[in-house]
Design a protein that fits this description.
globular; mainly beta
């Protein structure tokens, strides 16, 4: 059974850092592109970043470019999202998702498998 489990969320002060992990089981992660998404209270889920299966190329939304870094360790079946210089507006539940399909980097309907999410709260 294909499963994605996020971890690493928590409460952090503005300017702080967190590293989220997305652990995959039940499938070969290296064949899948992985995206990170977030959903703040009262808002729609939005794409943040993704990393491709083919060449490891990465994509970032403008709001996180230069602050977030996505990476993957296929041997550990894990994808990471390093988040630095966090802002209160980064507060959200963060989800990872997997897809075999090509398409727009963080288009939600491209992704078939989703984790349950991990809460990130940026507050002083």
């Amino acid at each position: 059974q294909l499963q994605l489990v996020e971890s690493g969320g928590g409460l952090v002060q503005p300017g702080g850092s967190l590293r989220l992990s997305c652990a995959a089981s039940g499938f070969a992660l290296n064949y899948y592109s992985i995206g990170w998404f977030r959903q703040a209270p009262g808002k729609e889920r939005e794409g943040v970043s993704c990393i491709s299966s083919s060449d490891g190329s990465t994509y970032y939304e403008d709001s996180v470019k230069g602050r977030f870094t996505i990476s993957r360790d296929n041997a550990k079946s894990t994808v990471y999202l390093q988040m630095n210089s966090l802002k209160p507006e980064d507060t959200a539940v963060y989800y990872c998702a997997a897809t075999l399909r090509h398409g727009a980097p963080v288009r939600l309907d491209r992704y078939d498998y989703w984790g349950q999410g991990t809460q990130v709260t940026v507050s002083s």
